[in-house]
Amino acid sequence: MHKMNRLKSFFSIFWVMLAFFVFSGNANAVVGTYAGDCAVCHGPSGAGTVIAPKAITGGSASKIKSAIVGGVPMMAGLVGLSDTQLNAIAAEIGGAANLSVAPLPVVCTSPAVRDAATNTCKTPACPTGQVRNASGVCAVVPVSCTAPQVRDAASNTCVTPACPTGQVRNASGVCAVVPVSCAAPQVRDAASNTCVTPACPTGQVRNASGVCAVVPVSCAAPQVRDAASNTCVTPACPTGQVRNASGVCAVVPVSCTAPQVRDAVSNTCVTPAVVPVSCTAPKVRDAATNTCVTPAVVPVSCTAPKVRDVATNTCVTPAVVPVSCTAPKVRDAATNTCVTPVVEPVSCTEPEVLDAATNTCVTPVVEPVSCIEPEVLDAATNTCVTPVVEPVSCTEPEVLNVATNACVIPACSVGETMNAEGVCEVIPSVACVLPKMLINGACALTTTSCDDAFKKFEHEQHEAYERAEHGDKAKLVIAVPTTQAIHAEQVLNLGMVVYGDERKIAMGVNLPKGARFTESYNGDLQLHQGMLGWKVPKSASGKTIKIKLCAEAHNEGGYSKKDMKFVFKTVLVKVLPELKSTLVTEPVIGRNVISSAVYNTAMQRLEVSGQVKLSAQKVNAVRKKSGAQLIQLSNAHNAALLGAVKAKADGKWFVAIPLSSALMPRVIDATFNGKVVTVMVKKLP
């Protein structure tokens, strides 16, 4: 029963180790039958691991099959491997592929048939006089005929086909239509072999005799038709006449000098008998012209706005129609024009400004900024502000946290701890278990915790350490990835698992400055787990940082000092340059959060969503500029870039990244404008 429990623990530890290495980002793809089915236990090179011994170099396929079928219980899970696969594994490790694999009968496609002797497909020969066509079917060899003869498929002979109706075969053996004979004015249409009447030239029509003739033009008077050209022309007028505006020939009228006038009847100039005109003062009659004229008068000179009245030669004030003006312009009575009155501009108080058109103070229209809760818009300043909250009332020993407006229990002083009643009490002197040490009244890790613990252990139990570190009977094991890569200013999450000893195990690390370390124990799987979280500083950029992790199995429960165990491992962390922001330099980012990070196994993709929350800014354009930047997603363990996404106007974002399950990260970073947030990825079926 005890052995069965230890075997179950072993299998549990085996699967935990596999999960832990995948969690730590060590997911190198493997290729080949040995690498896919054997390397996980025997190691990639076959040198063996803590799980399984060294693989048998040169082992034959039959030996491997015997081990799977009945030799080794842990290999029973490979019973589904075929003899072909086992031969391939044996070949990879230098062994004999000695399992017989009978060849399968080949499947042939018609017209080929299977040759049982050679297990191959062969095409049988066609009967005499036949050949295989493009479809693979045997057919008679068709005869070759010379035109106009064609091949008769039924008899496979050459025959001369009959000509179509209305055609005869000429001397060349070609079928041709018998040409029709046409009577004028019709002509033969070679295309249709029919008689057709051709169309007349432009401007002609066919008369009753069937002859094309010009259509006579119809002319309007005074024009007449010219038979030669079939056009309308205007004939010349008789001598002494010209054609007037109506187109009629008329005598040319004589030109008379006043006072003579033309006599229309005789077309001559005559002096008419004159009746003296009667004139009204001040006009008088001009005898020479028998017309009324105004005698010459010296015009008076007038001063504006008066003008001279020609009729009376006097100065008068003209009647003026007042102009109509549109506000703010008014009429100037002196000039009867519209003028803009001089107005003293009003003085405005901010945020109002002067409207020059109306000389009034107005509040300018401002585009309201978009605020993210808990901030609200201050309409007076058009900025996002945190609303004033009425402080809560707290009961001792709680006090008010002004930042969160919540009641909290204040932290105790160094060297004190809080009891069940919330009262701080002095911490009694404690004895810390290595690698932790007593610092300010509490047990904690330092930058040299593992080094200090190792020195003390080596001093007290040097031989026991030699056996634990190098001996074949050592059981205490640290499982942790030995290399990592991360950008400066990102958070490193480094996990470790310790197993192999049922005693109490203490874990520790040479804690980098600013780092934190948490540890826990999984009772179901009987192993210890630890997680190091460290925001890598800019000063470490371009360097390789060594982080030492250690574990000690403490001497208790009847074990002697010589049975104490102490092991350590060193992780090399390569620090890459900081990821720089290229779009926004203003410090407008309040918080960057990841709402969800899951791996969809069915869809083979990583689905991540979150929100960028912006700080209050006075200039709305700056907030919009920051909102246009990309959120970069990367693997937290090796800093490999996974993808990028742009946040929407409200700061929310979502992205689905196609990714095979072998490359699924366990922890991811989301970086936005220099701010990094880290979260573990959940795996969905």
UniProtKB/TrEMBL annotation:
Keywords: Signal. GO terms for molecular function: electron transfer activity; heme binding. Gene3D superfamilies: Cytochrome c-like domain (1.10.760.10). InterPro entries: Cyt_c-like_dom_sf. Residues 1-29 form the signal peptide. It comes from the Bacteria. This is Cytochrome c domain-containing protein. It comes from Crenothrix polyspora.
